[in-house]
Amino acid sequence: MKKYLAxxxxxxxxxLFGCGTAVIAGDKVGILGIAFAFGFGLIAAAYGIGPxxxxxxxxxxxxxxxxxxxxxxxDMFGYWIGQFxxxxxxxxxxxxxxxxxxxGYDIALKGLGQDGWGAGYQGGYNIxxxxxxxxxxxxxxxxxxxxxxxxIAPSGFAGMAIGITLVVIHIFGIHITxxxxxxxxxxxxxxxxGGTALSQLWLFLLVPSIAGAVGxxxxxxxxxxxx
Length: 227
Prior knowledge:
The protein has helices spanning 2-53, 59-67, 73-98, 107-110, 127-148, 158-177, 183-193, 195-199, 201-220. With 227 residues, it is mainly alpha-helical. Helix 1 (2-53) packs across helix 6 (158-177) and helix 3 crosses helix 7 (183-193).
């Protein structure tokens, strides 16, 4: 249970810092600021809860770790529960914070940093671009995570490598989908915002999960494993 609680706390860090920056300060810090908020939020979680759970804070990562043969099916489901709960709790706390702004805050109109695609969302990229970006970006992310946490990899640096990778992914992809690469990150905001965000949620649950499994397979088959 301690591992699952750690995953809840870590996912809460990531979603609150990342989505919170996008919603409250996005117009001031821009894409770079939002990207660093997500990356630094992950780094904070990695060193805060990493010794307990490994700091997956992402169902797609947990799928990759499971497929790679590094965790049990029971733990994967336990991690998922913690991750989705943490992401949803963070979105709820963020909704309470933004509701205190002078003049009020319309969540349905202004959102909570939810992911999406199509006309009216960010750069207006179509569903094909969204699927391709989320698959490739998640695959790269999971490869970095599994590669930097191998036994032969230098110890103590994985959190930095993973966080920097997430920053780069956000710089590249915020205008495409808002960047999910993490079903739990997408779930909480979409659940509270509803509407189009909720109807498009399937892509951010499915595509990163498939990419995570492919990444895990590359290490399970020793195609990328150094150990």
